[in-house]
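agent> call fold_tool(seq_1)
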Amino acid sequence: MAAGKPIVSIVMPVRNAADTVQAALDSLAAQTLTAWECIAVNDSSDDATAAILDAAAAGDKRIIPVSSRGTGIVDALNTGIAMASAPVIARMDADDISLPARLERQYEHLLANPGTGLVSCLVEHGGSSRRQAGYARYVRWINTLITHEQISLNRFVESPLAHPAVMFRKQLVKDHGGYRNGAFPEDYELWLRWLEAGVRMEKVPEKLFYWSDRDDRLSRTDERYSITAFYGMKTGYLARWLAANNPHHPHVVVWGAGRTTRKRVELLQELGIRVTRFIDINPVREGTVIHGIPVSMPDGLPPPEECFVLSYVGSAGARELIGAELKEKGFLPGTTWLPVA
């Protein structure tokens, strides 16, 4: 696609990225879609980042360095979106690489699917699959979620999208709000809020993005991305989803009776959700009562017309096994049961 008035605005928050930002910008220069602008928002960097951005802008007028209107990634993101001149926003971070066809494939997807508000893609894990095994598993998992139905159904397991790999219509920000500051991951909160509002999200089923997994990334170092922050934020969205979709609301059956599951379920109970039964495969727990709630083996699960099941077991492979057993018993995902974690 030829250059001209920008049809895509790339919003790139940058903080002390002197060692990576040039490679990120070079990957944009290599895009097959050339009608873009990159709003590179300098978030109070104290290294050579500003000089690198200024030099890049001098050589390519599509690169627009600006200073954040506040402090932190949320302010930087909202600053970039406010300055964007195109109707479509693409996200990118200063330590990632967009493969050459990324912008074109995602833009064409939005063009061909006017009912879709956000499109992402499959991503390549940019780290050690052994040293960073947990994140590598997470990347493999999100790469299995391609359709809107898959993304929507699994939204309460973990964030179903790689944040810097998304492209969305700017109108969504006007209709449903942009990034919010708070004690939670800003991207996951945005996806849950937009999905709750009915925004359709899909992925181009191609690897178009190299997602860096550095030891100092915010998701590893910032309290907003801690497990406690994730659950404290997403439980409210889950409770509202159940109120709208669970035919037996506020009653649910929870598959999993371990300590971690019970702590997460307590957050739901505080919001009025009532657990009528735990299902567990540990025979030691069969017939016991935990905080007034009976524990049964899977054979004790009521039929789908009598209950709604939340599968809280998140260990590797367990979610798939539970899903298969629920399917055999006649449960339908999103209708009579839901995977959570």
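agent> call fold_tool(seq_2)
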Amino acid sequence: MILTASSTIPGYHITDVKGLVKGNTIRARHVGKDIMAIFRTLVGGEIKEYTAMMAESREEALGRMISAAEELGANAITDIHFATSMVMSNTSEILVYGTAVVVVKA
């Protein structure tokens, strides 16, 4: 699967547009990670526990979007965008969306 944030893929020609595809996940913070994060805010620096959680969430959402594109018969996704939002206290949604397309070598 070819993935790009661009509308085009150099060296490829889009032969069919299958439509919008998306993937998402909603994650709740973990009390143990919150305790570590509180300590980290006291000394400064990256909150690695949350960085790892958000990276895992992005990968899960991306995998779901890819599965949706494969179900449509696409072999690439263009115009990929990520969005995040708070669903309720202590939870975040990661959403990724793009356009499922069929491409061939130019």
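agent> summarizing second result for user.
The helical segments are 31-43, 48-71. The beta strands are 2-3, 12-28, 76-86, 91-105.
agent> awaiting next instruction.
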